[in-house]
Specification:
Elements (H helix, E strand, L loop, with lengths): L1 H17 L14 E6 L3 H17 L4 E6 L19 H10 L3 E5 H6 L11 E4 L2 H12 L2 E3 L2
Parallel strand pairs: 1-2, 1-5, 2-3, 3-4
Length: about 150
């Protein structure tokens, strides 16, 4: 009787594993998802924008979210320019049109006294950038990149 119980129990576990998320993460899907973490200012943002364009050329189906906090928010503000004088707003708009999402940390905006009116319309304000990055990685299966 004990042997029959163990066989039944083992069979139940196998059936559960085969039909549930125990065999693969709940967030697994064919499309790769990447979060780009920007915290270091204009130079990092310039590199990141080039990386993202190249990323999408090589893998156009990639889901990309950019999370900016600290000095990394500067490129998402009205009038921000790269070192060569080229404005960021057109590049942000072009990438947003390709599905890239831009998220900006409200804690940073508050700490730096940056009014919401300065934030580019393509950027969604999130309560805390680090929390957003952690959530995307832990709950949605995003790969982390920091250019």
């Amino acid at each position: 009787m004990r042997r029959t119980f163990l066989k039944t129990l083992a069979g139940g576990f196998l059936a559960l594993a085969a039909g549930s998320s125990l065999t693969s993460p709940a967030w697994a899907e064919d499309r790769i998802k990447v979060v780009y973490h920007l915290a270091d200012g204009i130079d990092q943002a310039s590199r990141a924008m080039a990386n993202i364009r190249n990323h999408l050329k090589a893998e156009p189906d990639t889901k990309i979210v950019v999370v900016a906090l600290g000095e990394g928010v500067r490129f998402l503000l009205a009038g921000a320019k790269e070192r060569n004088g080229k404005p960021f707003d057109a590049a942000v708009s072009a990438l947003a049109a390709q599905g890239v999402e831009f998220r900006i940390c409200n804690n940073t905006l508050t700490a730096h006294d940056i009014p919401v009116s300065q934030v580019l319309p393509e950027a969604k304000i999130v309560p805390a950038g680090v929390v957003e990055i952690a959530r995307l990685q832990a709950k949605e299966g995003f790969v982390y990149l920091r250019p």
